[in-house]
What we know:
Blueprint: E1 5-8, E2 11-14, E3 17-20, E4 22-26, E5 29-34, E6 43-46, E7 51-54, E8 56-58, E9 66-67, E10 70-71, H1 76-85, E11 88-94, H2 103-111, E12 120-126, H3 134-144, E13 148-152, H4 163-173, E14 179-183, H5 187-199, H6 208-211, H7 214-231, E15 235-237, H8 243-254, E16 259-264, H9 265-269, H10 292-304, E17 309-311, H11 319-323, H12 342-351, H13 358-371, E18 390-401, E19 418-429, E20 432-436, E21 439-440
Helix pairs in contact: 3-4, 4-7, 7-8
This protein binds N-(aminocarbonyl)-beta-alanine and zinc ion (2 copies).
N-(aminocarbonyl)-beta-alanine binds near residues 183, 286 and 335.
Amino acid sequence: MTPDLVVRGGTVVTDGWAGAADVVVAGGRVQALVEPGAVRAADELDATGRVVVPGGVDPHCHVGFTSGGFTSLDDHRECTTAAVAGGTTTIVDFAIPRPGEAPADAAARQRAKIGGGLVDSALHAGVMEWDAATAEQLRQLCDEGLRTVKMFTTYRGESMADEDTFLRVMKTLGPLGGMVVAHCEANHLVEEQQAAQAAAGRISAAHHHETRTELAEDASVAEVLAIAEALGTPVYFVHQSTAAAVDQVATARRRGVRAYTESVAHHLVLDDSLYGGPHPERFVCCPPLRPAATVAELGTRLVSGAVATVGSDHCCYDTAQKTSVDHDVRVMPNGLPGVETRLVVVQDAFVRTGRIPWTRFVEVTAAAPARLNGLHPRKGSLLPGSDADIAIWDPAVERTITAGALHQATDYTPYEGRPVTGWPTTVVVGGRVVVDGGRVVDHTARGRFLPAAPLSV
Ligand code: URP
Ligand code: ZN
Ligand code: ZN
């Protein structure tokens, strides 16, 4: 096939390898990585002095997410515009059932929106309670390509599931090549702490971090990990925010348990001192931001290899939604916007500073998220046959993050005023240039639903 596009002159980083190569694109896919200058095409992108990586895969991205009385403000077009502007070319969204809604109905509802996106999306399903239909629903979801199922040990009356439900879902999913993705915070400990805080008049956003303790997270991880180990099924822990939680997973892996840690960008670079600032509500997420010492310890786990993936846990609420109930964190909308800033803050904090190489950055932000969601090597790779989703980073460009310059459908960013060096200034999606010179230049909705293959993790 005649090449449509050549990305030439850059340093390519993919699949644990980094070196000088040109990326040849044909029919929306990577055709070959070749010696610099070996192949010419009518369309060429000059990547001299740039780093050429697979577009990011965000394994944790809530689009138009309803929880409690609030719905986050973006749709797929808005969320994926922000994603691609920040170098992410695949997102994994969530189909969390509303109370009383069947998992397959939630999946159909959320899947219907994907076509409005600028990039492709996969979906995590969700199960809250087990009934006579759940096993068949899970089989149907796996057949449709939803093989990862988010479950929560917190948010009573909303999305919390009990241990029996965890066990049954894991037992059913294992043979189907599926996996539970677990949000772990021991709800009884959280509620006990919240009640004590409320009695002491310390339940506003400024006290959020005091209501959801590291102990509550660690205890819940131990419980869910034990179920997975007993059943021999894989399990993925979303947004782990404590070193002790990550270490439990790493220790379990050493005895053969297929357990994986996801960290999210805000837990790696922001700390709980922000709850003492002028906008504590803007940082209310679960688990909360942790003390600086914990943030530092989490960073060492990213460096050491204990952290498998870095997601965003993007939730696009705005300041008005957050402040409307900021006197009581028990009813606040949880979650931070971050799909656009995930890669740039992690690159700046860990690659630019020399703490991790580009190969590991690509592993945790693209390849491993793709693999753990049944999307690799179509996504998260630049090897021949992969979708031609390519982010070309200028590692020298200096920017200051401000909400006004971002595309996220909200009025704030948790990183307001943060200087970063390095940005994905050109982004190719399916062989088409969608971001050029740092601007989104093609707004065509080409988003496809990505069915997950059976996981071999
Ligand atoms: O605070 C968070 N993380 N909100 C989004 C929902 C979830 O728990 O992932
Ligand atoms: Zn969660
Ligand atoms: Zn989340």
